[in-house]
Amino acid sequence: MNARKSALAGGNGGQPIAWKRLTLVSLAIWGVYGVCETFFTSYLPLVTRKYLIFKDNPLILFGLLFLVYPLLGFAQANVLHFALRKKTLGPNALWSVSILFFTFVFAAHAASRGFFMVLPGSFFVALLVLFQWNRREAALSPWLAIFYLVSLAHLWGSRPQWAWPVRLILITAFMACGLLLVWMAGKIRGKWRLWDGFFLSPSPLIVYPLLSCLFLGLFVLLFKTPKLKRFEGIAAASSGQPPVVLIVWDTARMDHLSLYGYPRRTTPNLERFFREGATLYRRHFAVSNYTLPTHASIFTGVETYRHRVVSSIQRPQGIPFADRFVTLPVLLAEKGYRNIAFVANMAYVSGELDFSKGFLFYENRSKSSFIFMRREYFLREGLRRCVIPEPGTKGLLVYQTAEKLTDQSLAVLDRVRSGDSPFFIFYNFMDVHSPCLPPPPFNALFGDPASGRHLKGKPSALSVEQRAQLQRYRTAQYDGGLAYLDHHFGRLMDELKKRGLFEKALIILTSDHGEFLGEGGRYGHAITLENEIIHVPLVIKYPGQREPAIVEENCSQVDILPTVVDVLGLSPLEGLSGKSLRSKAPEPLRIVMSESYTWQEHPEARPQWRALASELALMTLRRKRVYAFEGFGLSPYGEKEEPFRGVLKEYLWQRQRKRRPGPVLTEREKKKAMEKLKTLGYF
Prior knowledge:
This protein has 683 residues and is an alpha/beta fold. It is 42% helix and 12% strand. The strands form 4 sheets. An 8-stranded mixed sheet has the order 5-4-7-2-8-11-3-12, with helices on both faces. The chain has a 4-stranded antiparallel sheet with strand order 13-14-15-16, with no helix packed on it. A hairpin with a 5-residue loop joins strand 9 (516-517) and strand 10. The N and C termini lie far apart (60 Å).
């Protein structure tokens, strides 16, 4: 009986539990958790993922650290005080009981979200607490216990690509190290009493959360905008060469731009740009129905079936291509251009696939935000689901907005320019990509921004009226997103005029693909080759052009690189699929193509080439034919009539050619690629 009382007292002399001290201890527990959780969700990703930039919402972060978690600590203190009001506990036992209670809450939350692998870690931490309970001079530090609990869960949950025996062995070794640390901590505290001043101080309401703010400041300093590569030794091009500006509005479909006759005024600045002297192409088609192959064709001037930069099971982000083709930025860099890029789509238009080659500056980082590290065992994830219950709200955006990228680009542009040295600047904006959440006032330009946000699930599960409401909402937000892009396009053009660059510049605005907005109950892209997906805008202002012009002939994304080469007076490149759009020779029978790719496993496909085209669309000025693939053959939706027969023969021959396989990704690299794609909502 005496031994039991001694253990309950924690070896330091039992006394009735003081509510004030219990409250401070509970606040300390939750303050420590806030620091540990912030480390794993906001700071550690910045070290392990180079494509991130710290953009955590400070109001949400500070609300967690200074309001929500202290309230939870206060609630914990009251529960424990009610449960133990007739007990006597020493200081060490008080810490132990509080840590045990927090461990139970953490484990219960994780189990409720289906993450049961946190239970072994919780059980192990509980054993450590009980092991320390009756030691007279060695209370278990909440820092060690909570960091150990969270890191064990994180170690298991963040490595699903590893086999469970490997993870089990690693976690066992981690536990053994933890036991050693606990033993060493007890020895150190028993000899020098180092824990008492800080690690076991029961007055942490300000100190511990402030540690997270300190980390915030340090990481912002360490992970600022990337530095410009040195360009002092680069030979500048002739001062007579025009600047080149290439702007891609990711997911912008042509028929929703007022420039092309859409009744809503979505693009007034683009209309002004056209009236001041630009060329409008009415029949411009994308080479595929999603971002990766279309951007690769824009950069290389060749069709998708030739460059093969497509997603596959083996390589979710595609294969590098700059060593196989001459790319636009590399070509311009060789001619003395100073190239910079500002890219919102960090998943597909990434430096890992050679899109960054040839650039002095390539801003392609996403936001490490409040919800980026979605781990079910984090309490922050549960709170996020309460505050932001549905995907498609602004708090879930991870890409950088047009406003931020435009502001950055103007600052970097002024640093790159040196006299009349020409430059090439490439933009990729994602503000009309799903979830398409334009900021005020653009979200309310064409309808109530809250009118259909509550509709969840698949459209097929909704009533006819609800589907119509959802379609109206998605269309209104999409049109508002286009107006938002158009606004910053106007800003950029005005800034180029102020700098005296607009008149002599070659400016190209286009899109990589379109988007379904409820037509036939479908949303998104990468589905089919209908015009809502592949009929995309193209507007070009040639150097010195002062009168608007309209072109009705077919053209394709593979024409952009040859056009730039022609305008700059460079030597024509061999092997290109496209042609210069400045050519005066009309081609009324020109055929352009578009391919739809799907991740299908075909028994005859080589492992490195598992992504096979599922549809092929061929367009002339008056006809469009779509062909479906069955294995390596074609099953036509339309007849294989002239003039398509020769193109089909060449296409099938190119598809069958033996190609050099791309490097096979490791499981870790594959998981990283999939995580980036999921972050942007591709899966």
